[in-house]
Amino acid sequence: MTNKLIFSGVQPTGNLHLGNYLGAIKQWVKLQNAYKSIFCVVDLHAITVPQNPVELKKSILELAAAYIACGIDPEKAIIFQQSDVKEHTELAWILGCNTPLGWLNRMTQFKEKSGKNKENAPLGLYGYPVLMAADILLYNTNLVPVGDDQKQHIELTRDIANSFNQKYGKDVFTIPEPMILSQAKRVMSLRDGTKKMSKSDESEYSRINLSDDAETIRSKFKKAQTDSIAEIYYDLENRPAISNLLTIYASLADITIEQAQAKFANFQFSNFKTELAELAVEKISPITKKFNELKNDTTELQKILDKGAQNARTIAEKTIKQVKGVVGF
Ligand code: AMP
Ligand code: TRP
Prior knowledge:
Blueprint: E1 5-10, H1 18-31, E2 36-41, H2 43-46, H3 53-70, E3 78-81, H4 87-96, H5 101-105, H6 108-114, H7 123-137, E4 143-145, H8 151-168, E5 177-179, H9 214-222, H10 240-253, H11 257-264, H12 269-294, H13 298-327
Parallel strand pairs: 1-2, 2-3, 4-5
This protein binds adenosine monophosphate and tryptophan.
Tryptophan binds next to strand 1 and helix 7.
């Protein structure tokens, strides 16, 4: 156990998919034994796009259940709901007053999410990365385990922290580093190997949800995109779909992509897909089973989140007090 702290989060916006699991949460499960760990249900981030309040409430508890079903142990790690700790919004405001618009204008996620209608995009969506910086900096986080898509936000967090420290002439904030461990740092859609697997893709066949039953998983892999070259080998640039399937296999099996490639070199697509689907069922089914058991025990889940918030608050209060002092409040 080191003294270093890791912090990460997922938005409670519907089902978790294989990208979330392989890119982020599966790594957290290993890391919780080696680091002080905080895993957040980032509900304040979720409302940067429209949410149905009834659904949101349900998704918050379900995400906590999913964390635990994936193997996060609330006795080892802090699991909490972001909006329960008001210091996140307080710090986000203060950091926002120290973040130039030019830095935010570079964020690709805002460009993607706001689409063509930028004039109608809410301020919160634009300020999303500042709130994320607040999440990370409140806890003196050393490392942030995430998928590849979040790297830019962590770079921004570092810039914000450095400029704040410099402006006030004090090392108020620890400078965090991204931790991108997984070979599946960018799991792609099963329908289009050039698009990221995402909760917001209209096609259910584009992703494997952690709530999918065995038959659904099999049928999604069966229909997964391949290409016209008969052989199976990894070539991310020219064969994104096959490379994605090999990456998924390797990650699920905890082997390297080279090993996966060697194993399937002489296979036909259909046989490779069957093996992949069976491995996915074997790895995902226990998670789904545990998730289904846990998700209805809302009293227990709430208890875990309450205790997590209490523990998180103890750290967050200290930081915000220091920050307010430095700013002159
Ligand atoms: P989100 O669902 O956007 O809140 O993402 C939660 C976590 O999952 C973040 O660490 C992301 O980087 C990671 N993640 C989301 N989609 C993918 C993907 N397709 N491949 C790898 N990691 C992903
Ligand atoms: N923006 C992250 C995502 O969409 C979620 C997130 C919010 C996060 N705050 C964070 C991740 C702090 C790591 C650390 O995936």
